[in-house]
Amino acid sequence: MKKDKKMDINIGIDEKNRKKIAQGLSKLLADSYTLYLMTHNFHWNVTGPQFNGLHNMFMDQYTEQWTALDQIAERIRALGFPAPGTYKEFSKLSSIEEIEGVPSATEMLAYLVNAQEATARTARSLFELVNEANDQPSADILTQRLNIHEKTAWMLRSMMAD
């Protein structure tokens, strides 16, 4: 085999469907990275009476999100496409708006609920495509991400309850 020859991918999913799935996963990666940055930013900048609890909770959340970023990006690569990896690409693909300034602790919780739910919606929107393509590894990632994002949104919402 020649060194410069690209091997075809033959995993049982045609190129057209692999490309569509990779594009969808790229949006999930962008939302996940934007959520990661938001959570890490809030970890650094949270203040107030809930500081210790929120500071530690945000660290747990961004640590989990960091691991997920790698899983999503590696799935895109396994499908045969480059994963987005720049702020510019992420800002174009993400459905989450970046937050400017330093919001209050309560506002941070609300922003994170919205970002967690947006990321869950992005993951959920891909199920029909991955199921039609018989792409169980991508479906598994989506299921894991939905479980995490929905549970985290619930926990964050619960912290804002009276």
Automatic annotation (TrEMBL):
Gene3D superfamilies named among the record's database cross-references: 1.20.1260.10
Domain Ferritin/DPS: 24-160
Protein's UniProt name: DNA starvation/stationary phase protection protein
One GO MF term: ferric iron binding
Family: Belongs to the Dps family.
PANTHER family tied to this protein: DNA PROTECTION DURING STARVATION PROTEIN, GENERAL STRESS PROTEIN 20U
SUPFAM superfamilies referenced in this protein's UniProt entry, alphabetically: Ferritin-like
Organism: Rheinheimera tangshanensis
Pfam families per record: Ferritin (PF00210)
CDD domains per UniProt: DPS (cd01043)
Top-level taxonomic group: Bacteria
